UniProtKB/TrEMBL annotation:
Name of the featured protein: N-acetyltransferase domain-containing protein
Gene3D superfamilies in alphabetical order: 3.40.630.30
Domain of life: Bacteria
Organism ancestry: Bacteria, Bacillati, Actinomycetota, Actinomycetes, Micromonosporales
Organism of this sequence: Paractinoplanes pyxinae
């Protein structure tokens, strides 16, 4: 296995994108904050965007993060995924010195599950963060199984544990095994809005009435307002610190 910086192999962008897309629902890719900030993230923070390649040079996994200014307290954490993106970009533009790396996403191709690749990618990002002198590593996790319990608050879900004391959630467990501790919910981690027709397209569902809906792969309920022709999804994630 070889871990490389994604910016060094732009020819693999499409292959890497496929690995990420197969792990997330379509609506996740319609976050306006991401659309406004990701180009600058790629331009300035490419050293924190890595891929794991097999012996044939094929993409098996990838992950990325952004450096942010954080004072180490729970109260100073960003709102979540969107907030970390904004803080990283605006902080860089303002010349603020970052103190932490926030993992933003990691994905493993379905054909390469259960090989420890997510941990390897995150470990490489963690190594790079400390090599740059950053003091903290945090992450607004999107727990793998939370979509099965969309009405359960994240604060409660985060306490559900197996007999061995580790979380019932596979993604939280991955981070716990790397030494991470739970800090608390990121209650407005992502906000995704669209028309009713867009939400129907993104989810392959129909929304005939105004109400909150359970949507496949959504961690929380999606509010659809038919009269206003608007659907809004506020995703709650979970902050952990490594």
């Amino acid at each position: 296995m070889q871990i490389i910086t994604r910016s060094n192999r732009p020819d693999l962008d499409e292959e890497a994108a496929e690995a990420f897309r197969e792990r997330w629902p379509e609506f996740i890719f319609h976050d306006d904050v991401s659309k406004r900030h990701l180009e600058r993230v790629r331009r300035w923070f490419g050293r924190f965007d890595v891929m794991a390649l097999d012996d044939d040079g094929k993409v098996m996994a990838g992950g990325w993060g952004v450096p942010i200014a954080w004072d180490g307290t729970v109260g100073d954490l960003p709102d979540g995924y969107d907030g970390a993106l904004v803080r990283a970009v605006e902080g860089h533009e303002a010349g603020r010195k970052p103190t932490a790396l926030s993992f933003m996403a990691a994905a493993v191709g379905a054909a390469h599950d259960r090989r420890g690749l997510a941990g390897a990618v995150l470990g490489e990002l963690k190594r790079r963060a400390y090599a740059e002198g950053l003091s903290h590593v945090v992450a607004p996790l999107r727990p793998t199984w939370k979509h099965r319990y969309p009405t359960v608050p994240m604060a409660e879900y985060a306490t559900w544990a197996r007999p061995d004391g580790l979380s019932i959630d596979p993604w939280i467990r991955t981070h716990q095994r790397m030494g991470a501790v739970v800090l608390g919910p990121a209650r407005r981690s992502m906000v995704i809005a669209g028309t009713v027709a867009e939400w129907e397209q993104w989810t392959d569902m129909l929304f005939p009435a105004t109400r909150d809906y359970v949507v496949p792969d959504a961690l929380n309920l999606v509010h659809i307002d038919v009269e206003q022709d608007r659907g809004v999804y506020v995703e709650e994630n979970l902050w952990v610190r490594h």
